[in-house]
Amino acid sequence: MSQAAERLRLLTGHLDRAPAVVATRTSAPTSALHPHKFRYTLDNDLLKPEERLFYEQNGFLLVKKLVADEAIDLFRKEFERICKREVRIPGLIVMRDITIAKSEFVPDQKAITKIQDFQDDPELFRYCSLPQILKYVECFTGPNIMAMHTMLINKPPDAGKKTSRHPMHQDLHYFPFRPADRIVCAWTALERVNRQNGCLVVLPGTHTGTLKEHDYPEWEGGVNKMYHGVRDYDPQQPRVHLEMEKGDTVFFHPLLIHGSGMNKTQGFRKAISCHYASSDCNYIDVKGTTQENIENEVKEIASKKLPEAVGITFQDMWAFRGRLVKGEKRIL
């Protein structure tokens, strides 16, 4: 990490900002069955052959009841404490929906739609270190694992402007590190998630393509900050709605095109997620690429919140977020 990134970490320390595939296991080793077909998964003793093939072909894998209710209840309680300002976490980013962003702040979870960068909250960061999560993550990243990006999403009931939607996008758009195949997201439902409250929507197989150009979609009701979407997205492409129960976890590739629909219920839809990467990944310069617009936006936001953090690069911002959760820290 550069001196600028270390300075940013110190500065944030003084701030207070606010369908599933279920298969039966076989004893045959996957590497023996398909010795030359795998690109997106690594040889392992955990994934069933059909699970591994499914991820290779579709770019996601849903695992039922992976996280226990007890852990989920603790995450929800910590989120409520953050919303009530009973706990203050350095560097935590608190977001509100565009329809309520300019309204008077109410210290309650109804005012918060998402929190990001909870790597310095011991209670929430337990999610990123859960052994049952990491054993799956290792199948995609290898043994040296960094937790790079953390979120708890509290999708609100839609206020009639359709702003609770999340445009179809690829997560790699936000990441200045590669290779993409050694990055994976773990996304866990904190309650029942279905089409009514805005479940994840994925385009199977799109992880085999390239990173597309992203920008804000032209939606009449407006778009939330940082919610970029694929520019040439075709709504007629075949989609899969990932309806999930509490504790279900989906793992997906950073090039997989995905998003979520409106929350048409009166309740809030909660999920927690972490993006992991192999610590053998390298940072890249995104200038002159389709990612330059997100780099500029992130740096602009950072300069407004931390004007003292002179010389911070896009790569620095990601470096100070990352936390080693398993194995050895190498490049990232």
UniProtKB/TrEMBL annotation:
It is an enzyme of class 1 (oxidoreductase). Its cofactor is Fe cation; ATP; L-ascorbate. One of its GO terms (cellular component) is peroxisome. Gene3D superfamilies: q2cbj1_9rhob like domain. Keywords: Dioxygenase, Iron, Metal-binding, Oxidoreductase, Vitamin C. GO terms for molecular function: L-ascorbic acid binding; metal ion binding; phytanoyl-CoA dioxygenase activity. The keyword Transport does not apply. The keyword Metal-binding applies. GO terms for biological process: fatty acid alpha-oxidation. Pathway: Lipid metabolism; fatty acid metabolism. It comes from the Eukaryota. InterPro entries: PhyH, Phytyl_CoA_dOase-like. Its EC number is 1.14.11.18. It catalyses: phytanoyl-CoA + 2-oxoglutarate + O2 = 2-hydroxyphytanoyl-CoA + succinate + CO2; dodecanoyl-CoA + 2-oxoglutarate + O2 = 2-hydroxydodecanoyl-CoA + succinate + CO2; butanoyl-CoA + 2-oxoglutarate + O2 = 2-hydroxybutanoyl-CoA + succinate + CO2; 3-methyldodecanoyl-CoA + 2-oxoglutarate + O2 = 2-hydroxy-3-methyldodecanoyl-CoA + succinate + CO2. It holds the Pfam family PhyH. Belongs to the PhyH family. PANTHER family: PHYTANOYL-COA ALPHA-HYDROXYLASE, PHYTANOYL-COA DIOXYGENASE, PEROXISOMAL. This is Phytanoyl-CoA dioxygenase, peroxisomal.
